[in-house]
Amino acid sequence: MRKSPSSSAFHTPTPEAISQLKELISDATYASLATLSPDEGYPICSRAGMSTLGDGTPIIYVSGLAAHTQALLADPRCSLLVGETGKGDPLTHARATLVCVAAPLSSQGDIYAEARARYLGNHPKAKLYADFADFMYFTLRPIRAHYVAGFGRAYVIDGDTVLGAAV
Amino acid sequence: MRKSPSSSAFHTPTPEAISQLKELISDATYASLATLSPDEGYPICSRAGMSTLGDGTPIIYVSGLAAHTQALLADPRCSLLVGETGKGDPLTHARATLVCVAAPLSSQGDIYAEARARYLGNHPKAKLYADFADFMYFTLRPIRAHYVAGFGRAYVIDGDTVLGAAV
Fold this sequence. Notes:
The structure is a homodimer. By secondary structure, the first copy, chain A, is an alpha+beta fold. The first copy, chain A, has one domain: Pnp Oxidase, Chain A. Chain A has four helices and eight strands, in the order E-H-E-E-E-H-E-E-H-E-E-H. In chain A, a hairpin with a 2-residue loop joins strand 7 (about 135-150) and strand 8 (about 155-160). Chain A is globular, with a radius of gyration of 17 Å. At the A-B interface, strand 2, strand 3, strand 5 and strand 6 of A face strand 2, strand 3, strand 5 and strand 6 of B.
């Protein structure tokens, strides 16, 4: 058998890669979300609507009845996969895994109005359930990003850099 | 605040829902994959190419250098989110979370040839790295599926039913 080139090794992030990653996150209106099932500890993948706060922090808006919501309330460790697939080979499209810590947003808190305005700006249809008592926002604070810009171009970028000002 | 309708409650799966779920899985050529990071236990979401064996068991073909591969070798608990997003609101598209147990396929085993033929049938470009020594197949045996057929239509379907003959 042949050996593969070291295509999956991580490279030192360039300013261009960091800038592309920030754009990928701010453009995302939904993501795959991985949470831990409270009963068995399995990693559970689901789809969630997302947006970001002004500083780039991802936010999701989810039903209190949904399994991922119950999972995040029991254990805040999670990750988001962002980057739409579009046409062509989904494995060559830019995508990023954001390893995050989730926190529910209180409707009394300062950030709530910002989160609501920004989420509904991205998801006009969510106005239908924007004020349901059992829906809630979470902030997802990134601690690390794995950014795959394309085949053979992968970067690990720390959470502060993900949220920092664009280069 | 208003209360939401019980839109996220699970319904008893109908034969039609089971049939649609099987089709969704067999049509999938990639998926979001959730694994457990060996170091910290975070649920990590990534993208993987997938196909199925003849009995419907999902298979993935992944680089030994990739984080999800190392994660599955350390802990076989995982899940797949299948169902392409396409046009329109991704939150209204049919999708399914398959809670699975992964097992690496030995290149000496009986199933290997079937897995390779079926995967490469779905992923012609993977022939470029089809025989790299550090790439490997995993079977992902479903123990449970959460199938969201659309808004307000969600089902829990056990793994044997997912793999059984179409109704």
